[in-house]
Model the fold of this input.
Amino acid sequence: MSVLIGFCEHCGVPFQYCLLHNGFNDSAYAYCDKCPFSAVLNWSHTSELVGLELHQRIASRIEPFLRPCPCGGDFRAAADPKCPACGVALSAEKAASYIEPNAPATGIGWKWQRTWAGVYSIILDDKVVRDWWDEQAIRNIPDIKP
Done:
């Protein structure tokens, strides 16, 4: 996974980013509603228990099964990635201005999906948690044995 440089369209501050193709690694993702953290959820027994659909952003029904973000916010289905410097949500459309020039496949016709809800997710300044399940909430699913 390559680390590349993008910039915030609001404050102009550069940040490191990497794109994650969630179809290649059988994962889903969510963004924090308050900060730049991303949650990457890999295929597992837990993901099957909660009905996680892979290769895309989580559905809102998955939110109760995730732990709070390290910042205290929540990983939400509707949250978009936020600038690490100013905290404002980034535009997926405007992100094409740095994502496409940095992507080698652009030369053979690849185009950025221009949405934060597709198969690609973005990790900003290495702010990521993985398999961030709330084990207590999982144990409370009916018919789940402790």
Q: What stands out?
A: The first strand starts at residue 4 and ends at 7. The chain has a mean pLDDT of 94. Residues 4-139 form one domain. The chain has one domain: 4-139.
